[in-house]
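Sat 14:20. Reprocessing the chain from the morning session after the first attempt stalled halfway. Input below, unchanged.
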Amino acid sequence: MGEVALYDISKRFTLRIDGAVHTVQALSRVSFKVHDGEIVALIGPSGCGKTTVLRIAMGLETASGGKVAVDGREVRGCGHDRGMVFQFAELLPWLTALQNVMFGLEMKGMRGAELRATATRYLELVGLSDSLNRRPHQLSGGMKQRVGIARALAIDPKVLLMDEPFGALDAQTRETMQAELLELHARTRKTILFVTHDLDEAVLIADRIVVMKHGMVQEIMTVPLSRPRPDLGIVRGTPDFAETRYRVWKALHEPAATLH
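Finished this time. Tokens:
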């Protein structure tokens, strides 16, 4: 199982500006669930709180109110039931691709022959069997992100949290990575919460889309596209894709007060 549930999550930040203390309400009563094996995309304008939601779900930030639960267990700090993929892979530059994945497994307590075999298996899963011994400076942007995904998957989390993992890639590589993510999901059935700014990306990969504005959930919509989605070029040409994309666009551009 791998259900993640957010219950009335609020987050306030205290800032000191020119000697004065200011409180910023980053999130206000954010509630939604990501069901076992589901991909949910979280979309909204910059500063709306998407990444803060993800960091609270991971345990990197503490909510000011509400709670997050994975399979009914309240999240209290980081844990191996969750893996995170960042916008930039954040690989250790002095380690090879294999060693970067092994590092995460060592933190989990894995040792011996199992350590190398597990890291190798997950790098093969993301198509990097020929790049095990390359260091980050020898890898392309897409390859670095594959290492980051392999590192997150290798600890076998129940939930995969992805913070705009393809946002820094060129358009062609991004499309390739979107297709590879869907293939990985079909093979692993991991629960995924995916933050993105990209309308097309949200519709292409998600089962449901959570639209956020001003630190609040404005709308949650179902994507009426069947799985598997092997050819994203064909998906883009379907009426369901166009209609769903327009619905998301409309939700993002309507005044917040008119949304439900």
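The chain has a mean pLDDT of 90.
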